[in-house]
Design a protein that fits this description.
The chain has 5 helices and 13 strands. The chain is of the alpha+beta class.
Amino acid sequence: AGVGSRRDVRQLVKQGRVAVNGTVERDPGCRVRAGLDTVTVDGQRLETGPAGPLILMLNKPRGVITATRDATARTVLDLLPPALARRVFPAGRLDKDTEGLLILTDDGQLCHRLISPRHGVEKEYWVEVDGALPGELVASFAKGIRLDDGYVTRPARLAIEQASAPGQARVVLTEGRYHQVKRMFAACGLKVTALRRLRIGGLQLDPDLPPGKYRPL
């Protein structure tokens, strides 16, 4: 509910400042039924909301990092109201200069299913590179690309939209290693100049959602 960190809330409970259904509750492990029980802090009622996880779609803009906090850079949580930002974390990450679909949630199990390669959830990207895209890259991506550290990626789908420079294409991955899309094209002698995530699994980025804005799912 945006009151504070877990440590902060434990202290509030132990100090007797939290009541559940009108009775002071001093056990931080007390379970509350969201949307059913009444919770107050210092006499002020909290909005516990409906039961179930909180899931947000964010259209991440360039120049913002995917982190919960940073000493100098602006983070994706800085794009949310403070009370909401305290409740969610990013499910996976996008590079600072990458834009597009990012899911923010308070559901750890959902986050794991989305980012773990074991579950094979597809991520689709639109990419622009600094040169032409030869047709043989489609087969190369389908077999897997050997990266600069020797790792061979899982098979990926490449659909070329513009072969001539600057080349444009869509790429579908089922894993998300560090700078993976950029490193895959770099291994083919091409530099990525623009990158946008369009889809995670069956969830498409809302075309009416401007960069830097979010909406609940």
